[in-house]
Amino acid sequence: MSTLLSTVTVRVPGSTSNCGAGFDTLGLALQIYNQVTLTRVDGDAPRPVTAADGRAQAMVETSAAAFFAAARIRPFGFSYQITGDVPPARGLGSSVTVIGGVLGGLNALSGVSLSGHQLVAIATAIEGHPDNAAAGILGGFCVARCDATTGAYVDTVRVELPEELAFVATSPDVEMLTKESRGVLPATLPYFDAVKSINSTAYLVAAMVSGEYERLRHSVTDYMHEPYRLPRIPGGRSAITAGVAAGAYTGWLSGSGSTVLCVAPKSVAGEVARAMQAAFTEAGLTSTARVLSADNTGLTVE
Ligand SMILES: Nc1ncnc2c1ncn2[C@@H]1O[C@H](COP(=O)(O)OP(=O)(O)OP(=O)(O)O)[C@@H](O)[C@H]1O
Ligand SMILES: N[C@@H](CCO)C(=O)O
């Protein structure tokens, strides 16, 4: 007879998404993590352990309801605590660390064992897009596909990336909620803005998959979301330009911001980080630069 767990800790990586013009499609897991600990308690509602955890209450309630519905089991009560290094509301997939942590935790506590792709499908429905959900749960560089009519998650093609490829994520000390940042996007795009964005995205994906990272140089030209979002982040555009001038292959606005990220050979990553931070300082913002490698593991139950 199997005994059900009463407490579990789930580790979920942060992630960068869009990766230029791959809006709502490309996601890449990074070696920066949050841990979400769930413990069974009486009742049928989620309870935050600390006041800071309570900021995620609505997200945790939605995730729990979606899990219990998908698993077709009776809801049970649990407490949750979120720890780790992924900064909230900075474009590094913090919401998926919370949503994924709750889904993975309930999966383990209930013994239901939904698959990784099933968890991505639930997280995609909650987030409204699959990019961070696929990367955070499955790990690696992910190209995620949704049904064109319903928007429901269909599948992800993922590749693993080597330790030597550095992702310099520089976060100004400004929170940017995805919901608000999506609100500044236009309803329609000029046709050739879409064409130029497709050209850049297809080439970037091919370079990532082939492992010919030198070919990433200057590959990102995004007309899908950066022109509308970057002007709201003082120093954001200059930080990418400075990172590339310091030796990075290319760079992009990470998710919906406020983090900007450059991809670089590890040998020049320190120089790239200094250049990016200097651009934010010049614009009057303090920032944190993190030199990260890709995470190829995704969500793990500890
Ligand atoms: N450590 C945390 N503690 C509590 N709540 C958190 C934590 N991290 C994230 N959250 C929840 O996630 C929200 C931020 O999600 P949002 O989608 O706006 O940003 P993000 O996921 O960091 O960025 P992006 O989706 O662009 O990568 C917070 O407002 C909070 O509800
Ligand atoms: N694709 C999403 C990622 C952030 O959650 C966006 O850019 O709004």
From TrEMBL:
Example of a GO MF term: ATP binding
The EC number(s) this enzyme carries: 2.7.1.39
Boundaries of every GHMP kinase C-terminal domain copy: 205-280
GO cellular component: cytoplasm
Domain GHMP kinase N-terminal, chain residue ranges per copy: 67-140
Role played: Catalyzes the ATP-dependent phosphorylation of L-homoserine to L-homoserine phosphate.
Pathway the protein contributes to: Amino-acid biosynthesis; L-threonine biosynthesis; L-threonine from L-aspartate: step 4/5
Gene name, Swiss-Prot/TrEMBL: thrB
Primary location group: cytoplasm
Organism of derivation: Rariglobus hedericola
Keyword list, A-Z: Amino-acid biosynthesis, ATP-binding, Cytoplasm, Kinase, Nucleotide-binding, Threonine biosynthesis, Transferase
Protein's GO biological process: threonine biosynthetic process
Catalyzed reactions: L-homoserine + ATP = O-phospho-L-homoserine + ADP + H(+)
Location(s), subcellular: Cytoplasm
Name of the protein: Homoserine kinase
Family indicated by similarity: Belongs to the GHMP kinase family. Homoserine kinase subfamily.
